[in-house]
Write a structure and sequence with these properties.
CATH topology of the largest domain: Glutaredoxin
Radius of gyration: 31 Å
Helix content: 25-40%
Largest sheet: 6 strands, mixed
Distance between the termini: 82 Å
Number of strands: 10
Number of helices: 6
Length: 224
């Protein structure tokens, strides 16, 4: 009885060991197959998903329901303009006014530096300055102001109603602040820019004071 029982236990143990070996082998093959599927790169060493998705340094607002159009405004020559006029270019839109003491000139100076950093691609980068003060920012004031930063920059203006309508569409806040004397009022306003891709779709929200290098990087991504 002891011999038979020992033999039965030995057979059972051998079957159990064989079962463990089989399960381990299956798990090894499964994991090997799964890993090979998850890490196998496309030709060139990068996956399609990695190469198709740009990595921006500014806020990605692709698909936002606002800032979809720029209408109702004209350039200093009186020609009505829209985003379609710059199709094929990355377009930066900034709202401000020529008497702005700090944010506006800093933003435009950074934009001019972006154009310099882009080098040969600079001709595919368009800066559009929308005035929030159309009463004082007449065409004769606007045109030389923006072109003092870069000759390619374009200024747009409208009447009070169209200016407010466009600003609301872009979710840009602005408010007149009375000065100590008539004619010296200023504006509190959103210190941010919007960047559109060459297809005319809004893509980036650029907070003020971020410097030109990060913006140049993002514009290059849009121009790929």
């Amino acid at each position: 009885m002891i011999t038979v029982r020992s033999r039965l236990q030995a057979v059972g143990n051998s079957r159990l060991v064989a079962s463990w070996v089989w399960m381990g082998l299956c798990a090894f093959v499964w994991n090997l197959s799964g890993c090979s599927k998850s890490v196998a790169p496309e030709a060139g060493g990068t996956s399609k998903a990695a190469s198709a998705t740009p990595v921006f340094r500014h806020v990605d607002i692709t698909g936002a329901p606002y800032a979809q159009a720029l209408t109702g405004l004209a350039d200093p020559q009186g020609q009505a303009r829209s985003l379609a006029d710059w199709r094929g270019k990355a377009v930066l839109v900034f709202f401000g006014y020529t008497r702005c003491p700090d944010v506006c000139p800093t933003t435009l100076q950074d934009a001019a530096e972006v154009a310099r950093l882009l080098g040969p691609q600079a001709d595919r980068f368009q800066v559009v300055f929308v005035t929030l003060d159309p009463v004082r920012d007449t065409p004769n004031v606007l045109d030389p102001y923006v072109k003092s930063f870069n000759p390619s920059f374009v200024a747009l203006r409208g009447d009070d109603a169209s200016t407010r309508q466009v600003a609301q569409h872009f979710k840009v806040f602005f408010e007149r602040v009375e000065g100590k004397s008539p004619g010296n009022e200023t504006f509190d306003h959103t210190a941010a820019s919007f960047v559109f891709d060459p297809e005319g779709r809004v893509r980036l929200y650029v907070r003020g004071g971020q410097g030109p290098e990060a913006l140049a990087h993002d514009v290059r991504q849009l121009l790929l």
